[in-house]
Amino acid sequence: MTMRDPCDGLEVYRVGGAVRDELLGWPVKDTDWVVVGATPQDMQRRGFRPVGRDFPVFLHPQSQEEYALARTERKSGHGYTGFIVHASPEVTLEEDLARRDLTINAMARSADGRLIDPFDGLADLEARLLRHVSPAFIEDPLRVLRTARFVARYSGLGFRVAADTRELMAQLVSSGEVAHLVAERVWTEAEKALGEPHPAAFFHELAQCRALNELMPELVPLLEEGLACMSVLPDVGEEQARWRWARLVEVLDREAREQLSKRLKLPRAWCELAEQVACTRHLVAESVVGEVEVMRWLNAIDAWRRGERVAPLLALVRLSEPSLADRLAAGWQAALKVAPRDLVAEGFKGAELGEELARRRLQAISVAIQA
């Protein structure tokens, strides 16, 4: 017996990013759907599970993809949450698309494959232009960050922000709307941008409309130096975004890094890596790196308890100072051979054990880096 498709009889359209990326030949990761002419009760009767808090969104019972009822929005307050949402069977597809941010995100495909493009998104896609759908762009400050993130994703394809759209982004800053964005939402967009092919473009775009001054002021004075560091990374696999951030902020002093971390409410792991990378930067900048400096560095990165931190930081040093990286690696391996259990067997305990362990590690490092 063939199971009936819950979408049968519904007016359903594939919308937004899935349509955009398909037209670009870009990998389509997530597919969003809009349903026109239905009510929440209609959806639930068909087996769709409601998941939207602020507007009616439902999960398909088989595919688990998101299906949203067509809706309109009206500005009612500050920030990206200050909207009254209206969803009803009378809302048309064109009205739903009109509330979107950029024309390239305001296209839809019907079930038979027809492209619905009321705002010339395809033309802008071909012109490599990021352009706002309507003056309502200025109602949502989150669109500043989203637009900058699209630059980070697609600038390698030649995409640029339209001049009048950039003016609206600047107005969102000068009006104070951007200041109403909560830290968690700002960081969510920044983290996504750090995973895009050209993350520097995100920060450049925010700087150009002065949103960076509002959201991450600590970065502004040393932005170009930080971006230059960010472009040079060791092979860190899936940790690339976190390392990009660490390299971006390594040029700041500790107080500025801490202020920025607090401002954005960064996850602890991101803060810790930033401090390790900054500490490594200071080590490389030392005029003389002897056993004391090596020991201080290993202590600072908590190498004795978190030995997995050493290898990627050594790889970072190797990018600019390969001979220093070799000496650091030799010192680290020598220090590891000093086993606390051997000192305990010799009778050391308590504070004396810690002091003797540090002394012998320092001695081992001294011999190794001079060899």
UniProtKB/TrEMBL annotation:
Residues 158-219 form the tRNA nucleotidyltransferase/poly(A) polymerase RNA and SrmB- binding domain. Belongs to the tRNA nucleotidyltransferase/poly(A) polymerase family. The lineage of its organism: Bacteria, Pseudomonadati, Pseudomonadota, Gammaproteobacteria, Oceanospirillales. InterPro entries: CCA_bact (IPR012006), NT_sf (IPR043519), PolA_pol_head_dom (IPR002646), PolyA_RNA-bd (IPR032828), tRNA_CCA-adding_enzyme (IPR050124). This is CCA tRNA nucleotidyltransferase. GO terms for molecular function: ATP binding; CCA tRNA nucleotidyltransferase activity; metal ion binding; RNA binding. Keywords: ATP-binding, Magnesium, Metal-binding, Nucleotide-binding, Nucleotidyltransferase, RNA repair, RNA-binding, Transferase, tRNA processing. It comes from Halomonas huangheensis. The keyword Phosphoprotein does not apply. It comes from the Bacteria. Residues 13-131 form the Poly A polymerase head domain. The keyword Nucleotidyltransferase applies. GO terms for biological process: RNA repair; tRNA 3'-terminal CCA addition. Its cofactor is Mg(2+).
